[in-house]
Amino acid sequence: MLGTLVTKGWYPIGSIPIVGSAPGKSGVPLSGFVSIKTGETFVTSPKRFTWESTIAAIRSFLKSYKCKRGHKIYMILDNAPWHKKAKRLIRDKKNKEYAEIRAKVIFLDIPPYSPDLNPIEQLWRKTRREITHNRFFKSLKDLKAALANFFRKFARPNEEIVSLCQFDFTKKKHSASKQLWIGMEHKLFRKNMAQKSIDEILVPI
């Protein structure tokens, strides 16, 4: 959910910065997908976050993203309850209505409370910093327009998002969660790299 967020910033000494704010907690819910290989970004705006809207967003994404024949998309969703239910339903082979998603997508699970392991979080931070931090929008229509213009820049392959969403854990001290992620990632990708059928799309919604 993105909306006006008052945060720290640089201002002249002695000045009193003022940021307008609408009453209540209004904002724009966003579901997003980003490719760490190309930087391509796909964003939808559901009415609210549910497992149904999650599956609808995945289907909408799959229609727009042309995956090579025989390739799989590795997809990360965070541990929001609606994401967990959507993954559980899609993974269950008894649910034939999701067979077309299973044929194209493999979900990668991340440990709880590990947003730093989800690359799209970097895009959300950039969006807040450049669009919603200390900026008042008179209406949700104005906010939606600003967000649409922002994401339109990244709908095609671009190096900015590729660079933003890449991680090099080898240069950082590893927490237990990062070590778990590296081990899980290595096992999965080593197994499937031999098949030469990989498209990496890291998602969160």
Descriptive key words:
single chain, 205 residues, alpha/beta, Nucleotidyltransferase, domain 5, three-stranded parallel sheet, two-stranded antiparallel sheet, 5 strands, disordered C terminus
The major sheet is characterized as: 3 strands, parallel
Mean pLDDT, all residues: 78
Order of helices and strands: EEHEHHEHHHHE
**First-to-last CA distance:** 11 Å
CATH topology: Nucleotidyltransferase, domain 5
Unreliable parts: 169-205
Q: What is the CATH architecture descriptor?
A: 2-Layer Sandwich
**What is the β-strand count?**
5
Structural class: alpha/beta
Range of helix content: 25-40%
Q: How many domains is the backbone divided into? A: 1
Number of helices: 7
Biggest sheet: strands side by side, in what order?
4-3-5
Radius of gyration: 19 Å
Q: What is the global morphology?
A: elongated
Q: Give the percentage of residues in beta strands.
A: 5-15%
Secondary structure: elements and pairs:
Layout lengths: L30 E4 L6 E4 L6 H14 L7 E5 L4 H11 L7 H4 L2 E4 L11 H13 L7 H13 L6 H7 L10 H18 L4 E3 L5
Parallel strand pairs: 3-4, 3-5
Antiparallel strand pairs: 1-2
Helix pairs in contact: 1-2
Explain this structure to me?
The chain is built from 7 helices and 5 strands. It is of the alpha/beta class and 205 residues long. It has a single domain (31-200), classed as 2-Layer Sandwich (Nucleotidyltransferase, domain 5). Strands 4-3-5 form a 3-stranded parallel beta sheet, with helices on one face. A two-stranded antiparallel ribbon has the order 1-2.
